[in-house]
Write a structure and sequence with these properties.
The longest helix has 41 residues, at 338-378. The chain is globular. Helices cover 73% and strands 0% of the residues. The protein is mainly α.
């Protein structure tokens, strides 16, 4: 038990660090941990090391909402949730936004764990059909989102523009270089579409006083948002080639972030943690590594699946408490000059993109920011910009993988 507990603590600390620092993804931290794995293995063994990796993944899934909420900086898993979360901050409810997302994340674990066990037992034999199913599901999902916009034609144009940029980015990702080690081209792509473009058009006034007066949402609404969010995360987590950002897009098909901010945050929080849980099941069931943490885990002598489920539960409870405690610091941002914050954050994300992806990443950031500004100018939602991720996956799943 002691190696498992120490491993959980190491993973939680690593997840807090990667979640709080924009640009440091859980995959990056997993690579660092893998580099020192001989030292950790000598003390904790493979079970303790596996516990550290799983706890890292879970903690990051909870903590990553904090930079999105207070600074408007998206991570790959918070590309869409940054919009309602930061909007609530500008209404003085940043702490509530974090609490909602964290509560959704906890529901994602509670609901997602038993379903992931069932998926592990039943789905591997049908994986060939499931892989084919990915493209039609995404086409249906994005079709519903586009039709639901005030101007479906412009929404379709934005979707394809973002999708073409996504295809171009992934096709030439090898052009990136980094001062601090490799990073995904998703960083400048999603930062431009959902981060920098939002910063450029956001309010320049003082950040209002942050107060927490309880959750302004009914219990029935919480459950009603957590259940579809969890199923979106589970669906995307098992289907090939999809990410948490895709799960957020699935959620957007039923819950609009610009109309139901609080429900959307709960749903995306649940989708994020459910995606992490089902990723573990997919790794055991069909040997498919969905993220860098799973790749790192594949290098170990794996412990029994029930052990990792226990680690998930323990890490989730602690990560939830840490996230809520950190959200209590929201009052610190009260009265800060919005123009100053936007300038500093904008400069910081540009620096991060250059540092982690080089000139090519900066070029992608500029193009993505331009596309991300279009929905604001046309008074449309930015959800169709997720075509940067979904269109390449649709083409790949339909057999056009050579783009």
């Amino acid at each position: 038990m002691i190696p498992l507990i120490i491993g959980i603590l190491i993973g939680l600390l690593s997840g807090v660090i990667s979640g709080l620092i924009p640009g440091i993804h859980s995959n990056t931290m997993a690579g660092i941990m893998l580099g020192v794995s001989p030292l950790i293995l000598s003390y904790l063994g493979p079970e303790g090391m596996a516990a550290a990796f799983i706890s890292l993944l879970i903690a990051h899934s909870f903590i990553e909402i904090l930079p999105s909420t207070f600074f408007g900086i998206p991570d790959s898993g918070t590309a869409l949730s940054v919009l309602p979360a930061h909007a609530l901050t500008m209404e003085g409810s940043g702490e509530e936004a974090v609490r909602l997302s964290s509560l959704g994340g906890l529901y994602g674990i509670i609901i997602g764990l038993p379903i992931s066990v069932v998926a592990l037992l039943l789905l591997p034999g049908y994986q060939g059909y499931i892989d084919w199913f990915t493209g039609p599901v995404l086409i249906l999902m994005m079709g519903l989102i586009i039709i639901g916009e005030d101007s479906p034609l412009w929404a379709l144009v934005i979707f394809f523009c973002a999708g073409i940029l996504g295809i171009f980015s992934f096709r030439f990702e090898y052009l990136t270089w980094s001062f601090f080690g490799g990073s995904s081209i998703l960083m400048p792509l999603l930062t431009g579409l959902f981060g920098l473009s939002v910063i450029l058009t956001s309010s320049q006034a003082l950040i209002p006083r942050q107060r927490y007066n309880g959750l302004k949402i009914q219990s029935s609404e919480i459950i009603g948002a957590a259940i579809p969010g969890t199923f979106a995360g589970l669906l995307v987590g098992w289907l090939p080639g999809l990410s948490t950002a895709s799960a957020n897009a699935v959620v957007s098909a039923g819950i609009r972030y610009d109309r139901d901010k609080r429900q959307y945050l709960i749903a995306t929080g649940a989708a994020t943690t459910a995606n992490a849980v089902i990723g573990i099941a997919a790794f055991y069931g069909i040997e498919r590594t969905r993220n860098g943490v799973m790749v790192a885990l594949s290098s170990l002598d794996l412990p029994a699946y029930p052990i990792l489920l226990t680690v998930c539960v323990c890490a989730s409870l602690v990560a939830y408490i840490i996230t809520v405690r950190l959200a209590g610091c929201a009052s610190f941002f009260s009265g800060i000059d919005g123009r100053l914050i936007n300038t500093l954050v904008g400069g910081f994300v540009i620096f991060l993109c250059v540092a982690f992806t080089g000139p090519f990443g900066l070029f992608i950031l500029a193009c993505a920011t331009g596309i991300g500004l279009v929905p604001h100018l046309l008074n449309l939602s930015r959800v169709t910009c997720i075509g940067a991720v979904t269109l390449p996956v649709i083409l790949y799943s339909l057999g056009f993988g050579g783009f």
